[in-house]
């Protein structure tokens, strides 16, 4: 489960019996948050590996691809994986896109940022970081799925980075002490200001390059 709890209602908000309202209803019968975190993390690793074979360096990502990635990851755990959420959601007082608007917004994402920035071609690091930031922010602001939006957006950023000739991205600058700046960057993106978030992705790229260089010594 991601971070703080969301406020939502409807069928996608049903909790697993016996979980005391802490774990969403799931196909594995998991009732403890710790067990669900582990199951989602293990499934995420498998999905990332599978996605490397599925999408080429020349692939232009679509809204359907994003749904397929979500299903590839969480399909073994949640019956609604890969389906757009049907509930309104907010986090820490911030409301994500109204649920009925999600299909339209995902079409706009496909025709806009995804068409402009995928396939993500090799370029200087600053331009790659800006492309990653725009796609990532727009996907997060839509928040198309009931669970897993942040991690799914990182999978997409990873795949875009590989298209651009980068090694696997190191997302630590977006987490831990950097999380406050990450959230602020997402909020700035509401006004189409992607620079703050791009600066974090640039740090992730630089960190990944340093890690790659040290591993070849």
Describe this protein's structure:
The chain has 217 residues and is mainly α. It has one domain (11-215): Orthogonal Bundle (Fic-like fold), CATH 1.10.3290.10. Helices cover 53% and strands 2% of the residues. The protein is built from seven helices and two strands; from the N terminus they run H-H-E-E-H-H-H-H-H. It has helices at residues 33-54, 63-74, 102-117, 125-142, 149-163, 179-188, 195-215; strands spanning 90-91, 94-95. It has a two-stranded antiparallel ribbon with strand order 1-2. It is globular. It starts with 32 loop residues before the first helix and ends with a helix.
Contiguous low-pLDDT stretches (5 residues minimum) are 1-6
Tell me about the largest β-sheet. Answer: 2 strands, antiparallel
What's the helix-strand series?
A: HHEEHHHHH
Based on DSSP secondary structure assignment, what is the total number of beta strands? 2
